[in-house]
Amino acid sequence: MNNQIERADHSHETLDEHAEGYDYARVNAVARIALYDDLRSAPRVTEIQPAPTGEFIENLASKVYEQAKTSGGTIPYTVIREVSENFIHARFAEVTVSILDDGNTIRFADQGPGIPQKEKAQLPGFTSAIEPMKRYIRGVGSGLPIVKEYLEFSHGTISIEDNLGTGSVVTISLKEAPGATEFAPANELGRTESAPSETTVPLAAALAPSAQTGLPTVGSGLGGMPAAGTPQYQAGGVQPLPAGPSQYAPAYQAGFPPQQPYHQFQQQVQAQPYQQGYPYPAQQTSAYLGQPAAAYPQTQHAIAPLVPPLSNREREFLPIFLSEGALGVTDLVHLTGVPQSSTHVTLTKLEQAGLIEKTAGQKRILTELGYQVANSL
Hints:
By secondary structure, this protein is α+β, with helices and mostly antiparallel strands.
């Protein structure tokens, strides 16, 4: 028994020495991606061949994203990339990625040393990365926290479990499109479900004093003049005005108080202090460039977000955030092919417009306004 213990201890020391001498510049192992159409049949397996570390991670993340997306999944590339980079901690030992649930669940498994403190691994700043790893990953403990933050925001989940024997299994799942429940759904009329429906009433009927129960009709009480041609509004509901002009039409213009002649009301309207170029109550001042926005009808319908003036590149970037989630400058360079300096300038402009904001990991995500604008493009 003592001999067995000694041999086991010696074997452990040898493993540690081998780990210290590991060459992080190149991955010599083969990674496997298992794509499941359903659990009643064997998966389709794709192999990622050995390559330099940076290239290997890129090949793995891109292929997983491609297959998940083709299957109908909505998990962004950046989330897949962050979890794929974690394999470096396992020295890429027996990497297996399983794509399930029509691409909406992805399981990353390895046979490395495992993750003993699973809760801390999902908090910013906790990391086991050593210097050789930091040539290929950030190594500051931001990877899994970014993934967790995005999935929680998008009503997804992340779990970390021990693999069989050794290693760890990280499972990410996104059952619905990002942000699908963050905002009330709009129907075909553009009204959100939470907005009360509006009852349509003829304007003149709504303003007529006799529209209320118990009030005299239009002609009554005015020197005994008969209400010739004037409809009687009963308590049972509002009825439309007659098509033809009434006998006293000049004194009772639709929408104006009957006690006041039309020309006096017109003079009052012209004397209002709301001059051209200044916002009046039916207007809202735009948050972009300080310009007054166009007047919106004062109804209970949901008003579409005001789209600021955007360049073609800014219009190209916003939908990418909508589908990919949190993105950094490097991620956008990879996805769009736009030079890094131009990408940084574009992101700065979108931040200043209030359409995107930085996360704790210095990535950018859509703000609530940005989400609405991206959906409207």
